[in-house]
Amino acid sequence: MPRPLVKVALMLLGKTLILLTFYSELASLANTVPIIISKGLSTLLSIAHQPNFLALIATSVLAFVAFVTGNAFIYATAVILSAFTCPKPCLPLAKLPFFIAYLALDSITTSYRGLEQRSIRVRFWALAKSVPIPLLVIILCTTSATIVTLAVAVLISSFAKVPQSNPRLYAVMTSPITKIVVSLAALLYAYSVAKDVSEITAVAIAPAPSAALAELLREEDIDVVFVPVFRWLLYIALAAVLYSPVYTMVFNILLPDLLNYLGELMRMGVSLLTYILLIFLSRSFDILSGFYGSEKRLTATSLVLLALAYVSATKLAFPYTGWRAFLAPDFQGLGEAIQKSYVDFGNTILTLINALSRFVGAAP
Amino acid sequence: MSALARFRRVLLYLLPAFSIAVLAFSIYLLLASIGYMERGLVGTSLLSVLIGFALLSAALYIMRLAVYVYATEKSS
Q1: What is the ipTM for the molecules in this complex?
Q2: Domain total for chain B?
Q3: CA triplet A187, A286, A229: central angle to 5 degrees?
């Protein structure tokens, strides 16, 4: 009977740890939520004139979600994001011990089944030998991740040395947004490097032949086609290229009534949602992403886009030629509409980048 | 039989050697990118840092394969 009691106690302890880690962030969330409810989201956006405040809001929301669900991954994300809440990116030293304690508690909670205690006998020499191996793994992977982070930090610090003869480039390179994006990418990359190095060290120190053979025989894990890093930047650019035709075809030609019926904010939300969907969709145009099985996705996406173009061109020609439009769709008109929307989209993007650099104080 | 065994022993060292060569080249590219950035060649610097990170990933992948091959050979 003591099992559920102990589990509940462990869970409560974990929640207390999360609360202790993020008490200031949660307090600020409790302060800002009434403001949002009473005065609307626009007030909050007008307050948030610096990235630190946005990071603080994101951290507190993530901390609340971690507190409710007890998810270790969300907790880790909140801890990492809390590095950006101070004016300069800083290491959340006070939060890290709590996080490590929570991880230990989490593994105990998931593996503890209660009433199954028994003692095992370990020789002292075996115990002494078991200490340096994990230590070596940890030291090596931490060192490699630190080296990667240091290299990127040196690169970021030398951003400021970009000649000031090109003021526009200088403004982009020294803006806080660029630094935050580059540091986040470096953080993700350092994590993957540390993971690989720890795996290599562990297998090299304690080789397990059968496990290694099983790993070598797993085809989808070994036959990796070369995958360049930072793929999602490419997807975002590809989605920007695909966005205007798809948006023109779906919302301007096929469903114009729906768009006029929606409000300004809803329209913005719909276009944002379309863009995010396209980022995921453009993965299927990436032939390198998965060599096996990606051709089906590629075919399906291309056929859907072709069908969309055919239907919208037919709808453009329908009022003039009647049912013959199915045989002679108006591709010329469709192309002109798409060209116009490309120009509009480019203007919007330029205005947005200009406004954003003013927003973060990078440009006057 | 002995020729085959010798060939296998050479193969065992081939993957680590290849991996270390790629690793050295990637470290060179990362250092070069910092130098380019200091001289103000932004595009060159970003391109070389991208290539350097890709090569670092490749080196780690080859090293992983080498380690698994080594662990498999350990039994026989």
Answers
A1: 0.84
A2: 1
A3: 20
